[in-house]
Design brief:
CATH topology of the largest domain: Fe-only Hydrogenase (Larger Subunit), Chain L, domain 3
Number of domains: 3
CATH superfamily of the largest domain: Fe-only Hydrogenase (Larger Subunit), Chain L, domain 3
Distance between the termini: 52 Å
Helix content: 25-40%
CATH architecture of the largest domain: 3-Layer(aba) Sandwich
Number of helices: 20
Strand order of the largest sheet: 2-1-5-3-4
Radius of gyration: 25 Å
Largest sheet: 5 strands, mixed
Structural class: alpha/beta
């Protein structure tokens, strides 16, 4: 242990502890821009500089390790002046358009500028005047706002192993750019949006669709229908000043109706439906010699990854559409018919924790209803902005019910939002379908948690099914390489593109630490425990849609509306 003094506070810390970590243990906060708790140390912004007794130069707290007897000052006048100058130099090359920035009031640079009372910058403001990258339907990049912290590069290259972003040039000419030297759409970007969470400023953000929604609501001839993904409610509270998971679902529904949505339904309905289709597909492959292991197909970022980097394994993907796209196809067919509403009048909106969903709904194959199945996707952040725009006080909002048909769901659907949730939901149903026995304990705890790769084995009356779960595409790549090499022992593999699964999606409230994602995971299982029905095949509305419309799992109409095909995107990068 090393005995050190930080701002007069005596503390003992282990070897290899950085000043930043030691200060945190002592209850002292040190500002930074490039530091990220879940990434490697970069030490390139220098905002975290501090004084070490005996050193002539100021030292970066994020990378400088402690030694026994070290005396550190983190907030002397000299340090404050140094940090202020560093921030002024960064701001001198940064656009001064905070009021119109997507990260206004949620920007690390803006917060530090306010904290260090930067009023009149002595340095001339010189912005490069580079063109925004608006090439994708999901993400935009504003090159002028990039402070070259490299956090987005690391999450893309190390966590996700996509390598869609990289560093160009050096010194004050350095710039983060898409690989291939072109626009983002021409890079291997899979549009997961993890770079948004990594970015401390407004250099990367989601493409907003709020204006399109408001135009649809204003049109008296348009019937605006929405679906809510399971991970959205849990995190939405964070966006509107409430604790994680604190917003009641019925109050959430009331808020959406207040905004102007005509009908509020739930993606969880089609999550339950996905389990029926996907579970039967798995059983068919197991008994008829189909391609194994079968991969889940709920995460559009993961689908993009597989199409780009593993096109030779596309046959392993389940043909099931994601719950979002199943919902979109059904709302303009089955639901429209039930409600007596012409499909052409329906404006289908999904509220998602995911940025890649914005791309998914524009895929040309997602029009099996005869129209674009989902018209627009709003992220959790966007719906939070809408609620603030509408001036809603949720503490005074009376609860409201979901609209009829496609609003009922089980606990199995709720856990779709967590890594391992799709697998657990599938096992709850597959076990009962195969064994014809009631599953008394529905909790498959082996597939839960934040471990990057998890595995389990389930005995289905003599048939042993080995499963694996990966979240974050760096972990997925390890399983994919195993499958490609022919060494995979698994029958069924769940993959989610984002760390933590949908709870950590690119469209969720900005968080740069996995600690918050783990908090959301806990909340999602609490909700599952509270549900009266916890198995997808016990959903009465799912039973009704098969009896009245789909007829049978994997039948003709199911294949027409609920299943899809994939494309080899890897050729353009060869």
């Amino acid at each position: 242990m090393n005995n050190i003094i930080i701002d007069g506070i005596k503390i003992s810390v282990p070897d290899n502890t950085t000043i930043m970590k030691a200060a945190e243990m002592a209850g002292v906060s040190i500002p930074t821009l490039c530091y990220h708790p879940d990434q490697a140390v970069k030490a390139n912004c220098r905002v975290c500089v501090c004084e070490v007794e005996g050193d002539k130069l100021l030292q970066p707290a994020c990378s400088h390790t402690v030694y026994d007897g070290m005396v550190v000052k983190t907030s002397s006048p000299k340090i404050i002046e140094a940090r202020k100058t560093i921030l002024e130099l960064i701001l001198a090359n940064h656009p001064q358009d905070c009021l119109s920035c997507i990260r206004n009031e949620n920007c690390e640079l803006q917060s530090l500028a306010a904290e260090y009372m930067i009023r009149d910058n002595p340095f001339e403001n010189r912005v490069r005047g580079l063109k925004k990258d608006l090439s994708t339907p999901a993400l935009f990049r504003d090159h002028d706002k990039c402070i070259v912290c490299n956090r987005c590069v690391e999450v893309c290259s190390v966590t996700q192993t996509v390598h869609a972003l990289g560093l160009e040039k050096r010194g004050n000419q350095a710039l983060v750019v898409p690989s291939m030297g072109k626009e983002l759409i021409e890079s291997p970007c899979i549009m997961c949006g993890q770079c948004i969470h990594a970015c401390p400023v407004g250099a990367i953000g989601e493409v907003e669709d709020i204006d399109r929604l408001l135009a649809a609501i204003a049109d008296p001839e348009t019937v605006v229908v929405t679906q809510i993904a399971p991970a959205v409610r849990l995190a939405l509270g964070e966006e509107i000043g409430m604790p994680t998971g604190a917003l009641p679902m019925e109050v959430f529904v009331a808020g959406l109706k207040h905004i102007g949505f005509d009908h509020v339904l739930h993606t969880n309905f089609t999550a339950d439906l996905t389990i029926i289709e996907e579970g039967n597909e798995l059983l068919g492959r197991l008994t008829n010699g189909g391609t194994l292991p079968m991969f889940t197909s709920c995460s559009p970022g993961w689908i993009n990854f597989c199409e780009t980097f593993y096109p030779d394994l596309l046959d392993n993907l389940s043909t099931c559409k994601s719950p979002q796209q199943m919902f979109g196809a059904l709302v303009k067919t089955y639901w429209a018919e039930r409600m007596g509403i012409p499909a052409e009048k329906i404006f289908s909106v999904s509220i998602m924790p995911c940025v890649a969903k914005k791309y998914e709904c524009t895929r040309p194959e997602m029009n099996s209803s005869g129209y674009q199945d989902v018209d627009i996707v709003l992220t959790t952040r966007e719906i939070g902005r809408l609620f603030r725009l509408s001036g809603i006080d949720f503490s005074k909002m009376a609860p409201a019910e979901f609209s009829p048909w496609m609003g009922e769901y089980s606990g199995a659907a709720v856990i779709f939002g967590a890594t391992g949730g799709v697998m657990e939901a599938a096992l709850r149903t597959v076990y009962e379908v195969v064994t014809k026995e009631t599953l008394e304990d529905v909790n498959f705890t082996d597939v839960r948690g934040f471990a990057g790769i998890k595995e389990a084995e389930v005995d289905l009356k003599g048939t042993k099914v080995k499963v694996a779960i990966a979240h974050g595409l760096g972990n997925a790549r390890k399983l994919m390489e195993q499958v490609r090499a022919g060494d995979s022992p698994y029958h069924f593999i769940e993959i989610m593109a984002c760390p933590g699964g949908c709870v950590g999606g690119g469209g969720q409230p900005i968080t740069k630490a996995n600690e918050k994602r783990m908090e959301r995971l806990d909340a999602i299982y609490i909700e599952d425990e509270s549900m009266p029905i916890r198995k997808s095949h016990e959903n009465e509305e799912v039973k009704a849609i098969y009896a009245d419309f789909l007829k049978e799992p994997l039948g003709h109409r199911s294949h027409e509306l609920l299943h899809t095909h994939y494309r080899d995107k890897g050729q353009k990068f060869l």
